Amino acid sequence: MDTYDDSMAARFRQQLEQREQQLRALLGNPGEPAEPAGHEVADFKDLATQESQAAIDDVQLENARRELQQVMAALARIAGHTYGVCQQCGEPIDLQRLSALPATPLCIACQTLQEHRRTAAPRR
Ligand SMILES: [Zn+2]
After folding, report:
1. For this UniProt entry, which residues form the secretion signal (predicted)?
2. Of 32, 40, 91, 92, which residue is least crowded by CB atoms under 10 Å?
3. What sign results for the dihedral spanned by CA atoms 100, 105, 109, 110?
């Protein structure tokens, strides 16, 4: 398996910084400005559409915020020469995975475990 080494730092840093800019642009423009006043008599269908649209935007923004945190953490790891190593188990992350998901903090094994734990969590 190919793994990351510091000679690839510039390439990954560039990729991450591009993503950072995209995410910051997204988070800097949270949707359309509010509708002007005078729409009190909107019918229920319109209202429902607006509300579900807002909920989708919230999820997208939340995801973007989380991804931005991961991107920033990955950039910090590149600067600190600890990039490319799983934050959970300390094993090197497969280079193919890193290329596809440069901000990922976890190797595929730990990611799978985490998702499994999340979906298999017992109900209370
Ligand atoms: Zn791991």
Report:
1. none
2. 40
3. negative
